[in-house]
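Researcher: Last one for today. Full complex below.
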Amino acid sequence: MKKSKRSKMQAVSFSLVLSLLLALTVTACGSGNGNSTAQPNSSPDSAVNEPGGTTNETNPAEEELKPESGAELTVWEAKEQVEYMKQLAADFEKEYGVPVKVEEMAGGDQGTRLATDGPSKLAADVLTLPHDQIGQAVKAGLLLPNDVFEEETKSTMVETAIQASTYDGILYGYPKSVETYALFYNKDLISEAPKTWEDVIAFANTYNKPKENKFAIMWEFVGYYSYPFIGSFGGYIYGDNNTNIKDIGLNNEGTVKGFTFLQSLKGILPLNAGDITYDVKTQLFQEGKLAMNIDGPWSIAMFKDHINLGVAPLPKGPDGEDSVSFSGVKSYYVNSYTAYPVASRLFAHFASNKENQLKNFEMTGAIPASIEAGEAPVIKDDPIISGFFKQFQHSVPMPSISEIKSVWEPLKAAFVSLWNDPGLDVKQTLDKTVSTIQADLDSK
Amino acid sequence: MHKKTGAALLSAIIPGLGQFFNRQWLKGLVFLLVGSAGIYFIAHDLMGYLRGLITLGEFPSRMVKVGKLTRMVEGDHSIFMMINGLMSLLALLFYTAFHLLNIRDAFLVGAARDRNEPIHSFGESLRHMGRRNFAYLVLAIPFVAVVFLTILPLVFSVLLAFTNYADPILPPAHLVDWVGFGNFKKMLSLDVWSSTFGGVLTWTLIWAIIATATTYIGGVLIAVLIHQPRVRWKKLWRTLLIVPFAIPNMISLLVMRNMFNNQFGPINSYVRALGLEGVAWLTNPFWAKVTVILANMWIGIPVTMILAFGVLTTIPRDMYEAAEVDGAGAFYKFRMVTLPMVLFATAPILIMQFAGNINSFNVIYLMTNGEPVNPNYQYAGHTDLLVTWLYKLALNQSQYSFASVIGIVIFLLVATFSIWSYRRTRSYKEEDMIA
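Model: Here's the assembly. Have a good evening.
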C-alpha cells in the first residue's frame, strides 16, 4: 500500500504529541519542587505573634542549650582555614555529638552564595563573613542574630569587633579574627620605624632614588587606605559611627585638612596613583628597594622569608595625632534558613571561643578578636602581630551599612585625582565627591 | 455529524477521548494520561505559580523572638516566585500545544474514517513515527533544553529590568515589585545615571569600531605581506604570529598590565632609555583607551590573519596573471583582486567580530578594570564598556534592575548591528564574486 499523505500527517502529529509528552514530564518535575516557597505562607497574624501562641513558655536561656536531636551541620570555610576548621569540627563533635561537614568556599563568595543558596536551603548552617558584607545579608533576612550568647560575646570580645558585627543595633556575629593595615618596614633599610610622618619625610629625602626605583614608602590608592588621611584629622564617612547617611563627613574641615596633607606627601612619592599597584609595591618591597609598605596581615607570608621584616603602627600625623586605620572583622554567622538553629548557634559560639581563636592564630596567623586571646603571650610577644594589634587599637571598622557601596568608587576617585594633581582644589573636589555620593543615595 | 468533528470535539474536552472514539485505544490512553497529568498540574499548582508571577509575593520573611531565641518565619521569595511563574508559563504553553495537537490528531484520523480508510494500529503509528518523523523526536530533547536553559534565563533577566530589585530591596526579607518602565525613566532622566550611560555607550561604540577595524586591517595586511611570493620562510612567520593567539588571553593581558605600568613597566623603561618622557599608559584617560586598543590588537590580529590566509590561497592565479597582462602594478593587483576577494569571504566574520567587541569583557576587565576612575560617573571608569559596567553594577553594587536595563540595551545594540549589516553583505544575498 502506498503511503498516503494522510497517514504521514497523522504520524507527524502523533510524534509531536509524544515529544511534548517528554517536555511535559520535564516541566512537571521542574515546577513541582519548591512548592513550599510558592504557596503564600501563613498570614501575618499567625499564632507566632500572639502571646501564648507558641508551644512552650519556658525561657530557653535558663536551661542548658542542647543541639537538636539528629542535627548535622555544614560549615563554609575559605581554603587557607579549611585544615583548622576540620580540627575544630572534630572537637565540636566530641563535645556535642553533632557531626560537622566542612565545605571549601572562598571568603569573598560566601556572602553572594548565601543570598542565592540560603533560601534554596543549600547553604551552610554557619559561615564566615567580613563585617562589611553583613549589611546586605541582614537586610535580606539571611542571618540569625547572636541572641543567646549576646552578653558573653560582648564581654569577651574587643569593642571594635562587637561594633563591626552589629547591624542596626542588633548583634549578629560571633567574632573570629580582626585585621587592619599597619606599617611594614625593612629593618635593613630603616632600623627604627618612623614615629611620625615628619620622620618619614626626613628619611625619604635621604633615601629616595626614583631612577633606581628606590622609594621610602608606598600604599595603594583605594578607599580602604585613604582613611588615615580622613579619620586622623577629624573627618569621617558617615556620621554617628558610620550609621547616619544624612551626615556625610567627606568634605568637612577635617577631611579637607587630611587630603591637603596627603597632597604635601607627593614630594616623597613622585608617582602617579595608578602606577602603584599591589603587585608593584609587593615586588619592590621584596627586592629591598622599598623601605616601608602600608599593608595588612594577609601579606606577612609574602615578606617574612625575603626581608628583615618589622611591623609598627602607622606614623602619627603633623599634630602628633594617632593615624586611624580602617579595620576589618571576620565573624561567624548563622544562616537563618538553617534546619538546626540551636546547634548552629552552639557551633558558632564554640568556634569563636578564646582557645579556638588562639588555635586559629597558630595554624593560619589570623589575629584573634577575643580580649583574653589578645593578651596571650603568643600574641603579645610576637613583634609582627603586636604591631598590628597596636594599630588595631586606633582603628575604625569599615562601615557595614550597604550605603558604603555608594562611597568606595567616588572616594577612590577623589583620593586618586587629588594625589595625581597636587594643584587640584581639595575642597571643590571633595564637595563634588560628596554630591556624587548624595546623588547615588538619592537614586535608590 | 461527521466522525472527524465528533472526534475533534471529544478530544478538545478531554485529551484522548477522540482517539478512543476512533478506536485507537492505546494511543488514546497515552493521550489521556498526559492530558490528565497536565490538567491536574494546571489546576493544582500552575495557577498558584502564575499568580505569584503577577503579585511577586505577599508576605516577606521575618524574624520572630521567642524568649531569647530568634527564629525566622519563612515568607515569599519574590525572585523564586518569578522563576517558578515563568516555568509554569512555559509549561502551560507546552500543554496548550499538546492539547491542540491531540485535537488535530483526532480530527485527521476521524476524517480518514469518514473516507472509510483503515486506521493505524498503535504499533503502526509508532513505526511511522520512527521512520517519518525521526527528526522531530531527536530534536525534542534539545528543544526542551533550549527553552528551559536558554530562553527562560533570558526572559527572566529581561523581566528584572521592570522590577525594583536592587539594594536595599532584597528578598526574602523584602518583596520585589513590578515598576514598569521606572528604571528606564530613571536611567534617562536622573543626571548621574544618564551622563554615565551616555558616556559609557559612546565609548563602547567607539571601542567596537576601532577595535574591529584595527584587528581586521592589521590581520589582512600581515597575511597579504607574508603571502607575497618574495617573502621567505613563510611557515616561520606564520607560526610566530599565531603565538599570541595560542597564549590564553588572561595571561597575556595580566602580563601586559604590568608591562604598561607607567613607572615600573618595561615599555616606559625603554622609552626613557631613549631619553623620552614616557607615556602614562594606564593612568591617563586618553592613553588608557589607546592601551586597551593596542592590547586588543595583539589578541585579535592573529584570528583575522588565519582567516585571510585561507582566503588568499583560494584566489585563482590566473586572475593575477590577467591583471598583469592589463598592466596592473602590485598596488592595483591588491586593490582590485586581493582585497575584494578577502572582503567578500570574511565580511560575515567582520560583523561577528564587531558584535563580539561590543562585549569584549576580558580585555577591559583584565587590563584596566575600567580605570582610570572617572569621578563624574556612576560606578564606571573611563575605559568601562557597557558590559563591564553591568558587571560592576550587578556584582559589586547589587543594582540588579539597572544592570538588567543595560543588558537589554546591549542586546538591542548587538542585535540591530548584526542583523542590519549581515543583511547588507553580499554573502547574504548569495551573489557570486566570480561570475
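Chain A is about 45% helix and 15% strand. The two ends of chain A are 73 Å apart (CA to CA).
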